[in-house]
Amino acid sequence: MTPIAGQPVLTANEMRAAEQQAIDAGGSVEALMERAGREVARAVARLASRAPVLVLCGPGNNGGDGYVAARFLAGIGLDVRVAASAAPATAAARAARAGWSGPVTPVADAQPAAILVDALFGTGLKRPLDPALADCLRTLAGKARRTIAVDLPSGVTTDDARTLGDVPIFDVTLALGAFKPAHLLQPAARHCGETRLLDIGVDVRSDLHVIEKPSLRTPDADSHKYNRGMVTIVGGAMTGASLLAAEAAMRAGAGYVALLGGQGGGPHALVHKSFDDDALDDDRIGALLIGPGLGRDDGAARRLDRALATAHRLVLDGDALHLLKDRMAVLESRAAPVILTPHAGEFAALFGEGEGSKIDRARAAARETGAIVVFKGADTVVAAPDGRARIVGDTNDWLSTAGTGDVLAGVISAMLAGGMPPFEAATAGVWLHADAARRLGAAFIADDLAAMLTESRASL
């Protein structure tokens, strides 16, 4: 099974273009379908453990993949039945149907099997399934011991990951050739279950990849607290948030963390200073973080204005993002790098609801501002102004608790202060944050997450 980390992610159009390139290079649709069906059959055989299999085939090439898979499964002795929602509508699908020697029953008449393979519709679906077909799919999925989707569960959109009706939650989805946005973005991703990538012999390339483990520099004999990275955090009305960010920055590897205008507390190694020009004018500052616990009053606005006026690398989070709406021109005119870390509400307040997928919206925001945008959530997307983007492949739902965003801002600040380019700093921070959550498992709070960063950072 191909690891998901670092893999390219392709839209429906990009995948069609990659397949066409393979055909133009001397292949054929039929050859691609044969390869895809064979790989699906191999994966299903491993998952089925000799149990009976029901393959549901649609009219398009996804259905063709299903017919080919059924033929290979029958060839190795499995009990395989095929049901179709309609007659094949493409030449390749008709050829695949002709290669299946067994009976084909209407989906409406299909009897359940222990293993259900959904090859009704793959990429490119734009409208809901026929209600009767959707009911049959749900019923058969509910009676199966294991459910497997070919490329995508029928009823989800490829690029923006919407669900078109009541889509079953599958145990496994077999991604053909490349991961698609729907395998990673919510809500579609939760319907995919475990996603496995199958190689169908197509060369795939993209500016969008799944986030992978970063390669970080470790301290050596010449290291000291400043060249490891100095993070300065501007405090505000809610001390707890800035303290969480500070501890996270320290445990993620920063050599020196200072909190300006806070109210005390935190680890003993945290340096407390007053908020003044002398503190902000320190040339040793590698990253300046403002927003966690800042507040939104006039005093908070003045602190943000002062931070924006510096030449430091900036990370803007939380309240600073709400105050940024009237300061976008200042942001766009800055020469020093900026990383924005909005959750969905903050993103909408800054950029509106927009159109397209979360990936599209994050990229558009990055182009508009010239900043790196970390669009947080259950499916965090990191986007750069040049179109590069990364997405988290798996997340921990227990991150949905207060303060975890402050922890993320602190981690990213540490990466930035340590000298990493802004895009790489943001993606490394997101990876460390997610890894710490994976190590914690369940029922944790933001304080636990910050503390667990020591293990995550030490693992690299």
From TrEMBL:
One of its GO terms (biological process) is metabolite repair. It catalyses: (6S)-NADPHX + ADP = AMP + phosphate + NADPH + H(+); (6R)-NADHX = (6S)-NADHX; (6R)-NADPHX = (6S)-NADPHX; (6S)-NADHX + ADP = AMP + phosphate + NADH + H(+). (6S)-NADPHX binds at residues 61-65, 122-128, 151, 241, 293, 343, 406. K(+) binds at N62, D118, S154. Binds 1 potassium ion per subunit. Its EC number is 4.2.1.136, 5.1.99.6. Keywords: ATP-binding, Isomerase, Kinase, Lyase, Metal-binding, Multifunctional enzyme, NAD, NADP, Nucleotide-binding, Potassium, Transferase. Residues 15-208 form the YjeF N-terminal domain. The gene is nnrD. Pfam families: Carb_kinase, YjeF_N. Residues 208-460 form the YjeF C-terminal domain. AMP binds at K376, G377, A378, D379, T380, G405. Catalyzes the dehydration of the S-form of NAD(P)HX at the expense of ADP, which is converted to AMP. Together with NAD(P)HX epimerase, which catalyzes the epimerization of the S- and R-forms, the enzyme allows the repair of both epimers of NAD(P)HX, a damaged form of NAD(P)H that is a result of enzymatic or heat-dependent hydration. It comes from the Bacteria. One of its GO terms (molecular function) is ADP-dependent NAD(P)H-hydrate dehydratase activity. It comes from Hephaestia caeni. Its cofactor is Mg(2+); K(+). InterPro entries: Carbohydrate_kinase_pred_CS, CARKD, Nnr, Ribokinase-like, YjeF_N_dom, YjeF_N_dom_sf. This is Bifunctional NAD(P)H-hydrate repair enzyme. Homotetramer.
